[in-house]
Specification:
Length: 309
């Protein structure tokens, strides 16, 4: 039994399909859709030096990695490697080979600190620690049963607040960029985000193939987008929130709840059966909002860090 590592063959649809399937088996709380995997690879900023790797055992894909540099962080030299091996194919050396290939690439691109999300299970944590990583922040995956659960009722809008969708901003998405940038920089994380490149945001975020502009809700105050909840879907039964945020000046007025509730109601009406999201375990306001909707924690990941050099 020989395990080898190579780059994903983006031009081969079956390879991308298998990549999505292999990742789904390891991490079913995330929407793994081939189109999105190709988009991420082809639209990542060149400074991210982004790569998707696969581990194969005798021709069978058993593990995957997505690796790159956090080019939009104010602190340079931060790299990430997110590695998942099929749960029924562990202990064959795939994880070890993927870590080595990832670390070699990231170090060659100038990374000095590496971050890796690790599902919170003793075997995974021991694996990360053996490779020189130490535990840092953690985050929950949450799931809401849209098909059988109940949603909070839609309320009358407060005075001065309008509810729109992202589709209303197609002619000029810049106000959405500004709101996304302001709120993303406040999201608790150990890798700071500061995106200032509008063209890169248009390519990576606004044109993301899973972003559903009609299900993405925007609360507008005095003509200005004040809060939003961005919806990804697999165009079938699964819906995921990619970001919820409220501009600093408008927090604590119920606008995040309002925007997300509108999006969830429309998603349910459109036939989506389950909703997913992910939150840092210290993000108390966002967790409180999600529990209010009825989301339940379905898994936890720990961010592991390794200093290189
Ligand atoms: C999280 C965030 C979206 C909340 O926006 P908001 O418009 O202030 O939220 P709302 O007013 O709709 O709801 C706030 C709810 O959070 C809860 N809350 C607020 N502060 C809290 C705290 N410190 N601890 C616990 N719960 C808190 C309350 O339940 C409150 O609801 P209530 O007022 O009805 O009781 C906003 O703080 C934000 O943009 N943060 C930065 C981006 C981010 O972290 N987004 C989430 C990414 S996963």
């Amino acid at each position: 039994m020989t395990v080898t590592v190579r780059d994903l063959h983006l031009e081969v649809p079956d390879d991308v399909e298998l990549f999505a399937h292999t990742r789904h088996l390891a991490l079913p709380y995330v929407l793994w859709v081939p189109e999105a995997i190709v988009h991420r690879q082809t639209h990542s900023h060149p400074d991210a030096h982004y790569r998707s790797l696969v581990a194969e055992e005798d021709g069978e894909m058993i593990g995957t990695a997505q690796i790159g540099l956090a080019y939009d962080s104010p602190e340079p030299g931060q790299g990430y490697l997110n590695i998942y091996v099929r749960p029924d194919r562990t202990h064959r050396g795939a994880g070890d080979l993927l870590v080595r290939a990832a670390e070699e690439h990231l170090a060659a691109q100038g990374a000095t600190r590496l971050f890796s999300w690790v599902l919170d299970e003793p075997g995974n944590r021991a694996f990360a620690e053996r490779h020189g990583y130490r535990a840092s922040r953690s985050a929950h995956f949450l799931r809401l049963d849209l098909a059988n659960g109940t949603l909070p009722p839609l309320k009358e809008l407060p005075p001065g607040v309008e509810l729109r969708t992202a589709a209303d901003f197609v002619d000029d998405p810049r106000p959405m960029f500004e709101l996304d940038a302001e709120t993303a920089s406040d999201e608790p994380s150990d890798v700071g985000t500061e995106f200032t490149d509008y063209e890169a945001w248009l390519e990576e975020t606004w044109k993301h193939p899973l972003l559903d502009l009609d299900l993405t809700s925007v609360a507008v105050v005095d003509g200005r987008p004040a809060a939003f909840s961005a919806a990804y879907t697999d165009r079938n039964t699964r819906y995921a929130t990619s970001m919820t945020g409220t501009a600093r000046a408008f927090r604590g007025r119920g606008l995040a709840k309002l925007a997300k509730n509108a999006s969830l109601h429309r998603a349910r009406a459109a036939g989506y059966k389950e909703a997913f999201t992910g939150n840092d375990t210290d993000n108390e306001p966002m967790l409180a909002i999600n529990f209010w909707f009825g989301y339940q924690i379905c898994a936890t990941e720990v961010r592991y860090v390794r200093e290189l050099g």
